[in-house]
Design a protein that fits this description.
heterodimer, A: 388 residues, alpha+beta, seven-stranded antiparallel beta sheet, 17 strands, B: 588 residues, alpha/beta, 43% helix, 13% strand, elongated
Chain lengths: 388, 588
């Protein structure tokens, strides 16, 4: 499962906004450390372009650089794991002139917010922000207060809709001698509408995660290629508790129970599969979790193969996939003394649970298998006990 | 707004948009579990076949498939009260909008797909409200009203799961959840306390569920059978703030037990994506803890741990779970199905009755037509007409190509079946296969409300010919006596014959031998009689055209003729036939 709302790069965001407003935009994308050709005599801003908040505070923006300084700084940031950077001409301006405007999609309509006091301290200036639904706002008044022409406001709203955005934030912009200058912009789009737009594509999606592990990449690939859903996030590579969960809701309930019992820090991963994946797909997914598990340096390791009572995911088929991975790694699992806890219900639960019980016994792997007559919290309690 | 009480009032009539056999079977299993006489699903919209077979208890039942909503017969379409939409996310907006617009009695719809664009959901919210339809989803596994409605996979997709869930009849605890995967677990929590659910709704975990938590809670508040409400929500979004307002403003007075998943996100500075689409707290007030704290202030019961949901529910007592009968457990789909004959009660049956009884009570013509139509026909008019057609088509001199092929094969020393087959294989677009084509054309004219002139123009553009029109020998001045005889057995004011005559009236002005021929009149009269005597709809007539029913009359009758010519040739015993050199012109 992928979050449908995705942030796109600042570079792409600015291209979309400036183009819509008929403004010129110059900026250069830097991907994987490759420094582009920029005018030799200019002064530049270099920033990390990966949907990270508070870049100033975190030292991820360099101001007023000469061309000669760029390669070293690009190298620095890239070596920290930031693969996407942005270079723009440096634009000195009065911080007092910075303004804020945003559009956000809500159930009731599009919410427009704006403030005279934009910039990095916008959260502190929350009281200065005015908000309203675009259908009900007096646009002439908004125009007067934002310094943007009614036409420009109209274009922004139309672009917001036609590019299926869920958030558009320009913070800050300045207006100098009637010229609009967009200094920073962020756009969040509805990735489910990728087939309906021309302004962005999934190549523009950015996430703060510096690098993904091969296991996470494998699961993302699996998710993209399958009608079923898969997700995997590494929380602590040397964690003790490994989750092999099914269902978006149940997986959170299980993680919550572990967290509430005081073992959140022991969680190695979070993730889930759902939507009745095939035996082979479940096998591929399980393989990634088992690889993480075997790499962990934790002394005690437990695995929770868990989920609620499924509607249509076939328990026998999915468990067959899990079982084939258990067989493959059985020697290592025995050696590391990994304990398995299974709790699941749904179509063909009897066959699935019987099969995994049999295999754990046959392979001499430690484990407890529960059907839905054992509640989720009771199964989690049993797992936590296994850590001791 | 549609209430749960409205839904309880009558047996649902469900249309499934898309073919999802697992979900469809589970709804049928639920109907069967409720001892219903007929499935609640009355139509499936999907391309492919005309019907699909499903289990009905231990036996099988057929459900009709239609290629589009427009192809569903009007009476059925207007009777639909529930829709299960299993279309792809890209097609959700259009297909749900179409369903709402074209089904005037629609009360409730479920959208199954994940990944519907938010803007499409927002547009559907407006349509659902203006047309007063309860639309649940996207990303929903459905709605369950025990004893009445199972709309979607909710409750499970296996017969024993449905039994195990104790959802045969209703209780007094409403289950409302953003998570489809948790709905059965929550039903189990309720039954684990000896209680049963009054209804259950999986709203789906999207950012903008069409039926939102606020509206769902109000459904439960306004449902007279519901006493307590279990609500499962997740981090992300602010829907729960509106639930709090309902409670503070006393719009909801029933006991609400709330569980909000996602406190684990607080472990992280930048939390990973937990659970569903909505489940990412963008602001502090969207976090699980913030929502729980806020709800606790309103006086609802906030279940901190999952087990607290159960312990917050008052205890009840349930009966033992019933077991599925053996027939259900051992059911298996048959390879073929037949509506004509088979073994039953130890005897061979034909058309629903003992073979001998059926045969003795019927003439050959009535038996033939009954078999061909797959239903018992007792109409004297239809039987008389069929009898005449079968007799009339028996032979048309040995000069025609099919008979020639039979005779040549017979003279080559081949056996009966080979010679007959050689003749039958000749039947096609140019020989003997025009009755069906004519039926198709007359049907096009009537269904599309064309005038004979318009039809002729269309045919002229397409192929230049109108099947059922034209004869080598007969003309206006020298009419075909067979056509007259056939027409007198039909309906005087039959619309198909009138239409065919209308076409003839125009074509004969161009050329006097472009008259209605035997093929054309048989097709028209048969359709008129099927309409007047058996109430055939245009859809059913179309099916007869598609399966080549009209040509079967020719094939059966002419089989007699070919067989006779074979026997005749064998009696003559003239030896191998060969064309004389003068019979074949060789072009060098």
């Amino acid at each position: 499962l992928q979050l449908p709302r995705r942030k796109i790069s600042e570079y792409r965001s600015k291209l979309i906004i400036n183009r819509a407003l008929g403004l010129n935009y110059s900026g250069w994308e830097v991907s994987y450390g490759k420094v582009p050709d920029v005018p030799k005599d200019g002064r530049f801003v270099l920033k990390v372009d990966q949907a990270i908040k508070q870049r100033f505070k975190r030292g991820l923006i360099y101001l007023d650089l000469a061309v000669a300084e760029l390669p070293a700084k690009v190298k620095d940031l890239t070596s920290e794991g930031f693969n996407y950077l942005l270079i723009e001409p440096y634009y000195p301006h009065d911080a007092e002139a910075e303004r804020y405007i945003s559009l956000r999609r809500a159930r009731e309509g599009i919410v427009l917010s704006y403030s005279r006091s934009g910039g990095v301290e916008i959260e502190a200036a929350a009281a200065s922000i005015k908000s309203g639904l675009v259908d009900t706002l007096d646009m002439n008044k908004v125009s007067a207060e934002t310094g943007l022409a009614p036409d420009q406001l109209k274009i922004l709203i139309e672009e917001f809709d036609s590019q299926y955005m869920s958030l558009l934030e320009i913070n800050p912009y300045v207006i100098e001698v009637n010229n609009l200058k967009i200094l920073d912009a962020a756009i969040e789009v509805d990735s489910a509408a990728g087939h309906l737009v021309d302004g962005w594509s999934e190549d523009d999606f950015r996430s703060p995660a510096a690098t993904l592990t091969e296991e996470e990449i494998a699961v993302r690939k699996l998710n993209n290629e399958s009608p079923a859903s898969f997700s995997l996030e590494i929380i602590n590579p040397d964690g003790e508790i490994f989750l092999l969960l099914s269902g978006g809701g149940a997986s959170v309930v299980i993680a919550d129970e572990i967290f509430t019992m005081g073992h959140g820090k022991s969680l190695a991963n979070y993730g889930e599969y759902s939507g009745n994946p095939s035996t082979d797909e479940t096998k591929l997914y399980t393989e990634q979790v088992m690889k993480l598990l075997l790499k962990s340096k934790a002394e005690k390791k437990v695995v929770l193969i868990g989920g609620a009572v499924a509607n249509f995911t076939d328990i026998k088929n999915t468990f067959d996939g899990i079982i084939s991975v258990l067989r493959k790694y059985s020697a290592d699992l025995r050696k590391q003394g990994v304990k398995f806890y299974v709790r699941r219900g749904g179509p063909r639960q009897k066959e699935g649970l019987e099969a995994i019980t049999r295999v754990l016994k046959e392979l001499d792997i430690l484990g407890n298998v529960y059907d839905p007559s054992t509640t989720i919290p009771a199964a989690v309690a049993s797992l936590v006990k296994g850590l001791k | 707004m549609i209430s749960i009480a409205d839904i309880r009032k009558s047996m649902p009539r469900i249309l499934v948009h898309g073919l999802h056999p697992g979900i469809i079977q589970s709804i049928l299993d639920y109907d069967h579990l409720l001892s219903r006489e007929k499935p609640s699903i009355v139509a499936i919209v999907a391309r492919g076949r005309k019907k699909e077979r499903f289990f009905w208890g231990g036996n099988e039942v057929e459900l009709p498939l239609y290629a589009s909503i427009d192809a569903v017969p009007e009476a059925v379409r207007k009777s639909i009260t529930g829709v299960v939409n299993v279309q792809s996310a890209r097609n959700v907006k259009n297909s749900v909008t179409e369903a709402i617009e074209k089904m005037p009695n629609l009360k409730i719809a479920e959208i199954f797909a994940e990944g519907t664009p938010e803007v499409h959901s927002l547009e559907l919210i407006k349509i659902a409200i203006s047309k007063n339809v309860l639309v649940v989803g996207p990303s929903s596994v459905g709605v369950l009203v025990p004893g009445v409605l199972k709309l979607g996979a909710i409750g499970g997709t296996m017969y024993d799961q449905l039994l195990d869930a104790r959802i045969k009849d209703g209780g007094d605890v409403a289950v409302i959840t953003t998570s489809g995967g948790m709905v059965n677990e929550l039903i189990r929590v309720v039954t684990g306390r000896g209680r049963k659910v009054s209804f259950a709704i999986a709203m789906g975990g999207d950012r903008f569920p069409i039926l939102d938590p606020e509206a769902a809670i109000l459904l439960a508040e306004n449902d007279p059978q519901t006493k307590e409400i279990v609500y499962f929500g997740e981090l992300g979004g602010t829907d729960e703030y509106r639930i709090a307002e309902l409670i503070t403003s006393k719009k909801v007075k029933k006991r609400v037990i709330v569980y909000i998943a996602g406190v684990v996100a607080e472990l992280f500075d930048t939390p990973p994506q937990f659970g569903h689409a909505k489940a990412l707290a963008e602001n502090h007030d969207e976090s699980a803890t913030a929502k729980k704290k806020m709800l606790a202030k309103t006086g609802v019961v906030v279940a901190d741990r999952f087990d607290d949901i159960a312990s917050s529910l008052k205890k009840g007592k349930l009966d033992e779970v019933a077991l599925a009968d053996a027939a259900v457990n051992s059911r298996r789909k048959a390879y073929f199905m037949s509506h004509l004959s088979g073994e039953a009660n130890g005897t061979i049956q034909l058309l629903g009755d003992d073979l001998l009884k059926t045969v003795q009570g019927n003439s050959l013509a009535s038996l033939t037509l009954s078999m061909l139509l797959g239903q018992k026909v007792t109409s004297p008019k239809l039987i008389e007409f069929t009898d005449f057609v079968l007799k009339l088509l028996v032979d048309h001199s040995p000069n025609v190509s099919g008979a020639v092929n039979t005779m040549i094969t017979a003279r080559a020393g081949k056996d009966l079946v080979s010679s007959l087959t050689a003749g039958l294989l000749t039947i096609g677009p140019r020989f003997g296969g025009a009755i069906n084509d004519a039926a198709g054309v007359w049907l096009d004219g009537i269904v599309n409300e064309l005038t004979p002139k318009q039809l002729i123009d269309i045919r002229t553009k397409a192929t230049g010919i109108v099947p059922g029109i034209g004869h080598k020998k007969y003309s206006l001045d020298n009419p075909d006596p067979r056509v007259k005889a056939l027409a007198t057995l039909g309906e005087k004011e039959g619309k198909y014959l009138l239409f065919a005559r209308g076409v003839e009236a125009i074509t004969t002005t161009k050329k006097s031998n472009l008259i209605l021929n035997v093929d054309g009149v048989i097709a028209a009269v048969m359709m008129d009689l099927l309409v007047s005597e058996l109430e055939y709809t245009p859809e059913k007539l179309r099916e007869l055209v598609d399966i080549e029913f009209f040509n079967s009359l020719f094939v059966i009758s002419r089989t007699i003729g070919f067989t006779a010519h074979y026997l005749d040739q064998r009696r003559n015993d003239e030896g191998l036939f060969r064309l004389d050199d003068s019979d074949l012109e060789y072009f060098k």
